[in-house]
Amino acid sequence: MDFTPTEEQAAARDLAARIFGDLATPERLTAAGTDSDPELWKALCAAGLVGAVEELGLLGLVLLLEEQGRTTAQVPFVSTCVYGLLAVASHGSPEQRERLLPGIGDGSVVVCGAIPAQGGVRARGVPDEGERGEGVQGEGEPASRQGELTGTVPVVPWLRDATHVLVADDQRGLWLTPVTEATCVEPVELTAPWQAGRLTLDGAAAERLGAAEAHADVLATARTAFAGLQAGVCAGSLARAVEHVNTREQFGRPLATRQAVQLRAADAHMDIEAIRVTAYEAAWRRDARLPYATHALTAAWWASEAGQRVVHTGQHLHGGAGADLDHPVHRHFLWGRQLDAYLGCGDEVLQELGELIVSEEEVQP
């Protein structure tokens, strides 16, 4: 394994760092509230960073998401790249790729993912004339790549920004549906200041994306990408804490000279490295076309368990200032806890990982 970025990946990461650093300032984030920053989104797309992910691969995306996480930038970057660009590029038909990828790359098509843990959406096939392709759920219903979706997904991050939603039905089929009158979007408040909504589908027209194995790949890709985002959120939190304890003095000495502070920061640093390296490994394996489902779950576990420890540390090392809702480090705390919840409870992720390992051992010859 070699996680050294290619020249193209490194250049894209550096460009992303400059754009996020210039435009995702604390002042702009405060002014945006829970809304996305359209100027920042336009800058990312104009720089070609969204469209470049198809060539940069998942490891390249993880590097870009680390930079977003460092600044907690308010844009639907991760959702559009995971549920839109990579999903369509990997599992879309040639016609779907030709039709959808240009719009995703230039930012005119924004995609979010409604991948519920429990199936809350049912698909009904609408067969095309003469078509008998990929199967659609429901006994006695003809196979089709066109369908109608009915059901509800309680929380979908970045839904209020989306033009399209990638939806998983109760049989783990993936469907891409545009946001139309048949798609009800109700605002939902999250821990972190992300845009989110409750998705209600009532006979919404949709097109099938990929075959049966697409669901597992998209889910593992999402877990890896959000783990990379968490690595950046945690790194940004710790960087702010280190700056604070080096300048804040007590009894005539900087807080950073206290052994307890040093040990707490060192533990946080090691947790961040664990999140980062497991996300890199899962991403590298996907790009190398190697099995990576267990590695994605490992990255998700580290991001969930270690991530919440790190953002608590970042807030704690700020003392009373860390509890200030307007302090920049508090945004990292909120993002870290929201990502912890989105990736899943650590015990649940660990159980799923164990069950997957056992199932893989059972099928070995």
Q: What is the topological layout?
A:
Elements: H1 7-23, H2 26-32, H3 38-46, H4 49-71, H5 77-91, H6 94-106, E1 111-114, E2 121-125, E3 146-157, E4 164-168, E5 174-178, E6 183-187, E7 196-208, H7 214-247, E8 249-250, E9 253-254, H8 259-287, H9 293-316, H10 328-343, H11 346-362
Parallel strand pairs: 1-4
Antiparallel strand pairs: 2-3, 3-7, 4-5, 5-7, 6-7, 8-9
Helix pairs in contact: 1-3, 1-4, 4-5, 4-6, 4-7, 4-8, 5-6, 5-7, 7-8, 7-9, 7-10, 8-9, 9-10, 9-11
List keywords for this structure.
Butyryl-CoA Dehydrogenase, subunit A, domain 2; seven-stranded mixed β-sheet; 3 domains; 11 helices; 365 residues; 9 strands; Butyryl-Coa Dehydrogenase, subunit A, domain 1; Butyryl-CoA Dehydrogenase, subunit A, domain 3; alpha+beta
Query: What is the CATH architecture term of the largest domain?
Result: Up-down Bundle
CATH class wording of the largest domain:
Mainly Alpha
Counted by DSSP, the helix tally is: 11
Terminal-residue CA separation = 26 Å
Q: What is the number of beta strands?
A: 9
- Output the radius of gyration: 21 Å
Structural class computed from helices and strand pairing: alpha+beta
Mean pLDDT: 89
Structure description:
The protein starts with 6 loop residues before the first helix and ends with a helix. The chain is an alpha+beta fold and 365 residues long. Strand 8 and strand 9 (253-254) form a beta hairpin. The chain folds into three domains: 7-106, Butyryl-Coa Dehydrogenase, subunit A, domain 1 (Orthogonal Bundle); 111-211, Beta Barrel (Butyryl-CoA Dehydrogenase, subunit A, domain 2); 215-362, Butyryl-CoA Dehydrogenase, subunit A, domain 3 (Up-down Bundle), CATH 1.20.140. Mean pLDDT is 89; it is low at 130-143. Helix 4 (49-71) packs across helix 7 (214-247) and helix 9 (293-316) packs antiparallel against helix 11. The strands form two sheets. Strands 1, 2, 3, 4, 5, 6 and 7 form a seven-stranded mixed β-sheet that branches. Strands 8-9 form a two-stranded antiparallel ribbon. It is globular, with a radius of gyration of 21 Å. Helix content is 56%, strand content 15%. The chain is built from eleven helices and nine strands.
